Amino acid sequence: MYFAGRLRIALPGGETLDETRAALCRCGHSKDKLFCDNSHIGAGFTDAGMIVDSRLKPEGDDAEVLQISPTANGPILIRGPVEISGPPGARAVGASGALCRCGASANKPFCDGTHNSIGFEGD
Questions:
Q1: Would the pTM of this model clear 0.85, i.e. be above it?
Q2: Domain that holds residue 51
Q3: What is the percent of the chain with per-residue pLDDT over 70, rounded to a whole number?
């Protein structure tokens, strides 16, 4: 997942990073979780990029910063203004949601809880 804008990324140790761009792991194979290290190439991870069922919630405050917080062995929680784009016409806009980082969700890029059944370890 590639993010751009005003980002505040919570790291597992409690620290935060303020960034304007970040590439986060979607396949679950990165050696540098939460960040992408291109392990998806060797892992054969694929995603057509279609947004079938947007799980973004419209409610939220009027924050200008996107808060990005990985959960232990689970999804990335986002809160703040976000637009997710895929192939032409595939788009979701909202203010909060949970994004898959195990690579196994049937509704990528959104979390569907599959991480629980596959034993994903995120940190």
A1: yes
A2: 2-118
A3: 97
